[in-house]
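Can't paste images in this forum, so I'm doing it all in text. The chain is below; anyone willing to post the predicted structure tokens underneath?
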Amino acid sequence: MLAEKLYNAHHQIQKPKILVIGDLMLDHYILGNASRLSPEAPVPIVNVKKENKIIGGAANVASNLIDLGAQVSLAGVTGQDSFGEEIKAILRTKNIDTRLILTDQSRPTTVKTRVIASTHQIVRIDHEETHDIPEALEKDFLNALYAHIEASDIIILSDYNKGLLTKSLCLDIIDYCNKLQKRVIVDPKGLDYTKYKGSFIIKPNRKELAEAAKTDKIHSPQELVKAAEVIFNTTQAAYLIVTLSEGGIAIITPDDHQILPVMATEVYDVTGAGDTVIATLAYCLTLGMTVEEACHVANYAASIVIKHIGSATTTVDEIIAAIKTNN
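Text version of the structure:
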């Protein structure tokens, strides 16, 4: 039934319009082999065979949505540098609207360089500044968003805690969306979830939820629900969707909860899996699916992308095949 409903909705309605707002980054992969140690220091020498540059953060959410079949606008900031131009160039090849990507001269574009020998990550090198965007830029950014919010079916806040989604900006965006009865889905970061007050769905992972609720590690469904209560009290969100790694996905409301078992049989890299989950949730909700149905579909989508190295995406056809195979 789920596969059939997804197929029919995907093929019978106009492509949904989804606005993604969040931190942009470039994931730089240096791939090679390491068979000896350096004579200069006790570190491996990596003989580089290939380099890849992939859009990450909110840009990866947008990429996931495009591959699912949505029309996507992406709002964020980059530095005034070649890496920012690379991100926009990659986005344009995927037909993602980049008119809402502004330049912040006070920071570089966030770049995460991962050096991988065979299948082992040797080191990660980050270039970034995470201070809040300047007040004047925040005002310009918000003014540019209004028309796109009005034209969108659903809005995603993809927060990587890199300085774009300040508390004031988040609250202004959510307030405007609620006035227009537009649902907001948040992928959160940090400890202050009051910045997401009024959102429809907040999607932390288990560790993020425990930290935001100021509790010890979450081991049981009871501890999960107790931590969720703290977030509901401060945000008035309708749903918490909590990714539990090998434990699956939890769907929690102020009155109920259920846990969907993990669907993955092989795990190579969980990088970007959260981006896939939130993109799939948003896409399925715009198709008219319930939150529970959307979570089931997102669970299958995550099981597909974690079989790949690096941030990956999937398609509705691949998800349908995975559902049918499991059934």
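The first strand starts at residue 17 and ends at 22. The chain has one domain: 2-23+59-103+130-326.
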